[in-house]
Amino acid sequence: MRNFFAHKGRMALSAVAVLLSVAFVSGTLVFTDTMGTTFDKLFSATASDVTVSADTGKEDDEVSRTGRPESLPASLVESVAKTDGAKSAEGAVSSMDVTVVDSENENMGSTTGAPTIAGNWTKNDLRSMEITSGHAPRGPTEVMVDADTADKHGLKLGDELRTIAGSGDIKARIVGIASFKVTNPGAAVVFFDTATAQAGLLGATGRFTQINVTGAEGVSDTQLKKNVVAALDDSKAYQVRTQQETADANRSDVDEFMNVIRYGMLGFAGIAFLVGIFLIINTFSMLVAQRTREIGLMRAIGSSRGQVNRSVLVEATLLGVVGSVLGVGAGVGLAVGLMKLMSAAGMELNTRDLTVAWTTPTIGLLLGVVVTVLAAYVPARRAGKVSPMAALRDAGTPGDRKAGLVRGLIGLTLTGAGGFALYLTATADKAREGALMLGAGIVLTLIGFVIIGPLLAGGVVRVLSAVLLRAFGSVGRMAERNALRNPRRTGATGAALMIGLALVACLSVVGSSMVASATDELDKSVGADYIVTAGDGGKPLNPAAVKAVEDVPGLGHVTRLKEMPATVSAPDGTDQKGQLLAAERSYTEDLRRETLSGDLSAAYGDNAMSVGSEFAKKAGVKVGDTLSVAFEGGRTAKLRLAAITDDDTGLDQGAMYTSITTAERYVPADKLPLDTALLATAKDGGDQDRTYEALKAAVADDPTVKVMDQTDYKQALKDQIGQLLYMVYGLLALAIIVAVLGVVNTLALSVVERTREIGLMRAIGLSRRQLRRMIRLESVVIALFGALLGLGLGMGWGATAQQLLALEGLKILEIPWPTILTVFVGSAFVGLFAALVPAFRAGRMNVLNAIATD
User: Fold this and answer.
1) Residue 7's pLDDT band (boundaries 50, 70, 90)?
2) Is 407 inside a domain boundary?
3) Where does the chain cross the membrane (predicted)?
4) Neighbours of 714 (CB within 10 A)
């Protein structure tokens, strides 16, 4: 206890590292648990006692490729209403395949990925909403909107909205505003009267997407479901769910999104914990070294090794408890901050739903204390091994040299094994096998570099010093010697910074290589001048937008592309379930695919198709063979194999092609998917820029439709990858912050350790300014040592990962030197920043008191 409180400042820096790591873990758990509570309340509130819908065999959140959701006949409502135990039943219409815009053509949908939902206003909606202004829609020109959307976009009664659906546009004025009784995470909701919803969203009257059944008093949802299933003529054609089952199914749709957030953030928290371990090891190692004489005296008067060992571990436990308790509290604050940030971005999360499960503080405390105690175990064990006489003579810890040799051999062995795993990754034939070896190689080389860090410190620091520090004369030489005085300490401090920068470098190389490879592939393979898509989310193009594009003057041709869910079967029984791309013959001009056998243009003839080389090899098929194609929602076709394309590409890898005419022959019109994309070229000799502007003007009424030329497409790809990398860099900043704390702590303890030495140097003429400069230069060289190792290691990982991407067609390795150099130079500034406080404190040291220090 005395030792703990005698070094409050040093312990505080280590406690901050524990606090940050625990806060990130606790904050992540609270944030995702709160999101789960919000969705659970919403789904429970919106679900009826029993819901009947069409059984499509698809995931509930899958985008409808026809632009219209699956529906039920209205006559079914009356049959269900007569079921035993049913109090009432009503038909509901709901579609997420819509875009809602205001009079200025601004999209009223969410910017966070939440859906835009259009439907009819029903009694079931009163479970979760109440009309707070105006009234429910009563005719084809009236619409009601939710209050959250109205607030976000400044909508009021009388404003006009246009709802763009697969069956056409619905123009209506706002006559009502309804507020959610529970938190709406961000969905935009509009309501019409039943007839308008049926005609505009389903393209037919007398149909509903689902039937909401309310049970009579005393009838359980489970019993009501059994009665409804028994009353249906063909129960297998329908999906019948209780309120809880509906809520659970809806929750499972968002669980994948929430798990990505949860495990991604926990992964970065784990990295921060790993970095914090080095900080704690360094702190306790230096504290033990400074108390060598004290430990010797305690051993001389009767303290056992176990008692000395336990005293250090008790200090670590106190540190872990204090840091963890504060971290759990900070984690709740972090979760609230994240909720506010998400609300500002458009995803509404309310603090009244704040959920702190008992497992959150338990996990936070356990992690913080266990990690801290484990990190302090090695210094504690080293303290217990100090013999009384050696300690009293300041002879140091016995066996250090031997332990260093053993550590070096272990580190070199692990590094060699990791390097061999990375070599196997680079020479792998299959990406899945290579990915396992890549993971092993990264882990082994990282651990190996951490262990051999002290061995590398001597050589690397001398090289850095020769380049950077010699210009500062004697002060620079002293800074170099200080950094080399304890290679183990320098290695551990640099390793903390190395981990974060290695990941930054690896991801930078992978991201740059992906962009360069995709750009090169586009230049070689894409012949189309313009690409038209329905934006993000995989939604199909609205038929009105397709017609508008086809009517643009100045276009040489427009190629329509459909994704047809189908199962392709070879004569030997080999099946492949996926998307069959249906296009027009001009697609061969828009996307140049290398053909290994046959004629690709013939695949767009009647009853013909092509397959990729991988499927052809696996199924043993050749040009001229007949394949069986079972179209989803349609009939099974017998198609002639007209071509085999090379799968060694980054675009349309493994794709199978057929013609739109063939697809239309076997799939009914109401089941035929809408166009996924359009590819277009300008007429020979035409003005491409003018045609490009005409294209954008033609689809301006639908803000979700994107028109891009090849330059735009490349930039969009670059921006997409860049946004992901920036987000990852932001999360890795936590590890770098903890690493900076480690540098600060190391320097602060080093200054205390060298108090007498500093006093003597000041007595023989070293100025305060020179002293501060010496400490800053020492910090800079340690930071650059960690950066050099981290960036070198990360670039090796990234280059190896690119070899795996090459198996998927992304063959260009590009090292982002501007980013690498910026990070390296930035590390020097990190070192300068970390040295500010220790250098200032050293400069204020009293010379006489310093000399008198024992």
Assistant:
1) low
2) no
3) 263-289, 312-336, 356-378, 405-424, 436-469, 490-510, 724-752, 777-799, 819-840
4) 16
Say whether both 488 and 570 belong to one domain: no
Separation of alpha carbons 605 and 609, rounded Å = 8
Residue 292 structural domain: 1-49+244-398
Nearest to 797 by CA among 513, 515, 519: 513
Residues 671, 704: one domain?
Answer: yes
List all residues 6 or more positions away from 17 whose beta carbon is below 8 Å from its beta carbon. 272, 275, 276, 279, 280, 323, 738, 741, 742
User: Which residue, 488, 372, 442, is CA-closest to 804?
Assistant: 442
Q: Which pair of structure tokens corresponds to residue 653? A: 């890898």
Is residue 814's pLDDT more than 70? yes
Number of domains in the chain: 4
- At residue 212, φ and ψ (nearest 5 deg) are -95, 120
Q: Is the separation of the CB atoms in 804 and 425 below 8 Å?
A: yes
In a domain, 431, yes or no: no
Q: Are residues 723 and 619 in the same domain?
A: no
The answer, yes or no, to whether residue 392 has pLDDT greater than 70, is: no
Q: Where are the alpha helices (DSSP H) in 291-358?
A: 292-300, 305-345
Residue 397: which pLDDT band, with cuts at 50, 70 and 90? very low
More confident residue, 399 or 836: 836
Q: What's the rounded Cα separation, in Å, for the pair 75 and 82?
A: 12
Nearest residue to 595 (alpha-carbon basis) of 621, 623, 561, 566: 623
Same domain, 776 and 745: yes
* CA pair distance 666, 39, nearest whole angstrom: 40
**Residue 704: inside a domain, yes or no?**
yes
| 184-211: pLDDT as tens digits | 888 899 999 999 999 999 988 889 999 9
**Same domain, yes or no: 550 and 676:** yes
pLDDT(243) > 60: yes
